Amino acid sequence: MTNSQLIDKTISFVKNTLRGAEGGHDWFHIHRVFANATKIAKGENVDDLIVALGALLHDIADAKFHDGDETVGPRVAKTFLDSQKVDQEITEHVVKIIEHISYKNSLEKNGISAFNSKELRVVQDADRLDAIGAIGIARAFNYGGFKNRELYNPEIKPNLHMSKEEYKKAATPTINHFYEKLLLLKDKMNTETGKLLAEQRHQFMLDYLEQFYSEWNP
């Protein structure tokens, strides 16, 4: 099987698996991350197949929709890749990308991941880009609505020093999420392309917040 055929089969698998998923973590999110990862990879010396598979499978079973179980996604991805008889070294690399891509892992210990690779850095940047800017704002409020969270509550201040466990359990208003994660992502980008693409999206969020507060307190 060629790499192109494997990618096509992976796309079909992801589309089918994520049918009916929450709007911020559905196939269209995967497609955007895949497209951004492909774009970023052009400026990096990486294995394009690992980047593609990592991007396509990174949210195949997000822990937040599986009772916080962080083993589901890697396990589903491995089962699929094994069924396609993908080289074991490639499968293991993709699984590690899925295990270490999440922002919440940066809140653990000293924030240094136990695993790192150029491919992980590319896919991570692509995923983080989709969490900021206009799409990022839409995804944040969509998920907040999905969880029945307040838009904003001036009496509930953002927690800027959360541990990984606190982050996983947080149920604060969506506006707080900007300060607890989204506005921090620009400075956490790994690649030069990622950093460049993040600048405009970051500024868009700042402009949005300024408009939001002006409408909240007319």
Identify the notable features of this structure and list them briefly.
218 residues; mainly alpha; Hypothetical protein af1432
Question: Would you mind describing this structure in some detail?
Answer:
With about 220 residues, this protein is mainly α. The protein has a single domain, classed as Hypothetical protein af1432, CATH 1.10.3210. The chain contains ten helices and no strands. The protein has helices at about 5-15, 25-40, 50-55, 70-85, 90-100, 120-130, 135-145, 165-170, 175-180, 190-215. α2 packs antiparallel against α3. The longest helix is centred in the C-terminal third of the chain and has 25 residues, at about 190-215. The chain is globular, with a radius of gyration of 17 Å. The mean pLDDT is about 90.
Work out the oligomeric state of the chains in this entry: single chain
Number of H- or I-type helical stretches: 10
Q: Which range does the strand content fall in?
A: under 5%
Q: Provide the helix percentage.
A: 55-70%
Which of globular, elongated, flat, extended, rod-shaped describes the shape? globular
Task: Output the CATH class name.
Answer: Mainly Alpha
The number of distinct β-strands equals 0
Order of helices and strands: HHHHHHHHHH
What is the total number of structural domains? 1
Mean pLDDT: 91
CATH architecture heading:
Orthogonal Bundle
Q: Ranges with pLDDT <50 over ≥5 residues?
A: none
